[in-house]
Design a protein that fits this description.
It comes from Caproicibacter fermentans. This protein has eight helices and ten strands. By secondary structure, the protein is α/β, with parallel strands linked by helices. It has a single domain, classed as Aldolase class I (TIM Barrel, Alpha-Beta Barrel). The protein starts with a strand and ends with a helix.
Length: 211
């Protein structure tokens, strides 16, 4: 199971990532409290262990702007959190042929996941729905809707994951990966102790799955 920690914005955060080595880290380029500029992301990325893949989180950003940020910060993955279309994703593929494209799905109803599956992204990331925010809300995704979707293709699971709930959730849903942001924070700042707790739980669960 892959692990992604999102909302990296300080050199201290990068130091934690280098210590615990998740598979992916996310830089948020949308209007949230975790936002960084492409220039700041590039500076942080230079401090990051080369084996950790870098994800850029965007919301309804023009493809050309996304491509600029990807190239400046050396990102491996584009994660789209807005109302992007199949045409927009195809345009991104033209501009960024080497990058993976993930589409976040704010699971609102039974049609949310099937709609996103038709957009042509490499990976879906299933997240909680909020009227006012596009992600990183700390709210748990609607697990009943995800359960009913009965997905056969790999997916990432996000939305309110923390040390108190992540073990049972990954045991039930067996996601390809998990994406954690607020669950490794205290007071809006990345917390080493919480990162360590999550990593310990996920390594234990991965060991069970392999056994």
């Amino acid at each position: 199971m892959k692990i992604k920690f999102c909302g990296i914005r300080r050199p201290e955060d990068v130091a934690y990532m280098n210590e615990f080595r998740p598979d992916y880290v996310g830089f948020v380029f949308a209007g949230t409290k975790r936002r960084v500029t492409p220039e700041k992301a590039a500076a942080l990325a230079r401090l990051l262990d080369a084996g950790i893949r870098k994800v850029g989180v965007f919301v309804d950003e023009p493809p050309e702007n996304i491509a600029r940020a990807v190239k400046l910060a050396g990102l491996n993955v584009v994660q789209l959190h807005g109302s992007e279309t199949a045409q927009g994703i195809e345009r991104l593929r033209t501009l960024l042929p080497e990058a993976e494209i993930w589409k976040a799905v704010r699971v609102k109803n039974s049609g949310s996941i099937p709609h996103a599956q038709r957009l042509g992204a490499n990976m879906l990331l299933l997240d909680s729905f909020s009227v006012t925010e596009q992600g990183g809300t700390g709210k748990t995704a609607d697990l009943n809707l995800i359960r009913k979707a009965n997905l056969s293709s790999p997916f990432f699971l996000a939305g309110g994951l923390n040390s108190g709930n992540i073990g049972p959730i990954v045991r039930e849903f067996s996601p390809y990966g998990v994406d954690v942001s607020s669950g490794i924070e205290t007071g809006g700042v990345k917390d080493r102790r919480k990162i360590e707790q999550i990593m310990r739980i996920l390594r234990k669960e991965s060991g069970k799955a392999e056994g």
